[in-house]
């Protein structure tokens, strides 16, 4: 007993001396002699569908701006919200009534009412402005490019008010069905002029898209896709992706690709072969979105071949209504593999893999996690989806006391955008174990979409109803006097 009292006295005296000398603060020593044990909780992937934002299948809805009561446009938007089961929407806004004039205040109010209704419902919007739905763009488009530029100037401020809801803008307002074909303004110079203006008048957080890789290179004037160091910096090249409404329709994707190799050509806008353009998209679309419509029942839209190309193109969104023949073919197909999706329909498999699909595969205390200066948890996340999540999500770590249920929720530095489609990334997350009392804790990771306020669900089975994925358990023990003294002596020897 006397020895134990003596040991405690020595310990307290040593602590007092260190404190008075200013050599070391208590909180810097605490983790060293406060034993912590972390046990990861393995959690395999589930094949459950995840309705996470800004990805997946979508329905298409159309509006024609006019002089009718804006309340009517809002009412129709509300009907679309109420009837649609999918949170992602392609909304086409037809401007043909104003081809020869500025958009009226009434028309702009209609646009505002539409976007306000969709935004208030938490819908995610792919937006396309156009002048034609009937394959007659040459008749319905404005006579001059200046009119189109003026319309861009007018709609820009309205769109920007709902930048959180608008995922991307497709096209340059031109062409049949807004697809940049059969138009008076289809030269690469015109496309560059129009897309440059659209980028200038819209919020940098909103992505843009052109119909083909050729169109994109004609705008950026380079064969080099956006570089990692320039990704997400708000520049035109960092925002410009693709929309392919001829996807998987033929070896050429209905005019998207060519049959002549473009290697060695001096013109960036020249089309390449299917293989060349798939390789281009494989790099480009790790940083900018790609999507559209899969069309025509042909060998290129057969399930196995489609999955390979969708993954290579990093496809985030697809129309689930068109082409019905392709959707039916995928529904009749069956996926076979050595994972949790074995036996599901091709349609379900593709639906689950459009965009991003996060799975936590590993977590551990980093090697220096119990050092005096830091407590770091290493977390590895795999993305089993075709594409990244291009929007930055809010990350947090929750430490939950297993006895009391008390929680400590901490913001975490985690840039989910770097987890490419079909790849993985590891992150070091700070844990305040130097301030935790003894006890047992469960550790959760949460990613939240700042627009909808919803947790982005992980595909792990150990994901709770609130969207938190369980990483593991942390046990904090009460230190013994002997342990305290040993840590102090070790510290003194290293001073």
Outline the structure in words.
With 495 residues, the protein is α/β, with parallel strands linked by helices. The chain has two domains: 35-48 and 357-478, Immunoglobulin-like (Sandwich); 56-353, TIM Barrel, CATH 3.20.20. The chain contains 14 helices and 17 strands. It has helices at 2-21, 26-33, 70-83, 105-120, 137-140, 145-160, 188-201, 213-220, 236-239, 274-284, 303-313, 324-332, 346-353, 481-494, and strands at residues 36-40, 56-64, 88-94, 124-130, 166-170, 207-210, 240-247, 290-294, 317-319, 358-365, 376-383, 394-401, 407-412, 424-430, 439-448, 455-456, 469-476. The protein has an eight-stranded parallel β-barrel with strand order 2-3-4-5-6-7-8-9, surrounded by four helices. Strands 1, 12, 13, 15, 16 and 17 form a six-stranded antiparallel beta sheet that branches. Strands 10-11-14 form a three-stranded antiparallel beta sheet, with no helix packed on it. Helix 4 links the parallel strand 3 (88-94) and strand 4 (124-130). Mean pLDDT is 90; it is low at 20-33 and 367-373.
